Fold this protein.
Amino acid sequence: MSFRGYVSLLLVAFVGLSAVNQLYWRAERLSCWSGGYAQNAWLAYCNSDKYGVYDADAVWFGTEPDIATGIDKAQVLTLSDSRLQNALSIGGASEWFSNHHFRAYFLGLPTEESGFGELLWDKYKPHPRVVIFDASPYFTGALGGLETPLIEDPKASFEQLADLKRFQDFHQTFCGKIPAVCGQNFAYFKSRDDGHWIFPDPDAQPLWGRRSVPNNRSVFPTESVPNEFLPLYPEYLKEARNLISKIDVPRACIVITHVPSDDALGSLAPYLSRSLGVTLIEPKVPSLATFDRAHLTPASSRQWTEAFLQELEPVLQSCIGAAA
């Protein structure tokens, strides 16, 4: 074979391998559940190495215009990691706020800690009437694992974000036309209306995928374990005070809660609320369970959220007033 023929063969092989690689990437992303688009939402996460998390990136860079609008209009704003976001989203909080005529925005992110919460507050400058925090373990002053790259390498993060946003346009169109070809890999969407998460049907039984979807089949009772975090409470208090000092809201209208899970931080919310003079809402709901030792099952989410909102309503009426 001549040298020219050899080079041509290499070029053909390279082009072929590149096409196969691109096809593999596209197929991996097409494995993501696509049902959330129909519910006026965007794909925030997919359990695929070729997609991953778009949620925190989109919130930080503001690539979805509804984010800034929702935060700006919110009378009630939540700041938390995934545990409170999961419970309220599955527990029907979005419908409850809408039915009671309060504008809420759920700003919970998968691994968010208060250091990133402070950056978000400075960036968006929200002006809610009520702010809700999940105490555990949020007030660290640090960035969460998924949020750290956004600050340390913003250029690479934005390039990845732009690629995922382009894919969503294709994903929505393609899966809308040929849904049978698209997969059911676990994913969640973020509502354009108020930021709550939208999950696949936990009772669906696809041939593959959805293994991590919140469900009532895997049950781990919530319980308290020895509290090795107790020495860190003063540091958590310091960071909570730093963040709350930026919030121009009466202390009575700042709510701290604790979503039960298999952890040792049940006493943190009362400690912070007493020290800071903010409102504690910590409903005592028996027999709750998680599906993964961290996040409440759908059944427990509904029970806990119903109890939480019942105690929250007087705070809303006091801080916001009876809305028309």
About this structure: The domain at 41-319 is CATH 3.40.50 (Rossmann fold). The chain has one domain: 41-319. The mean pLDDT is 87. The radius of gyration is 22 Å.
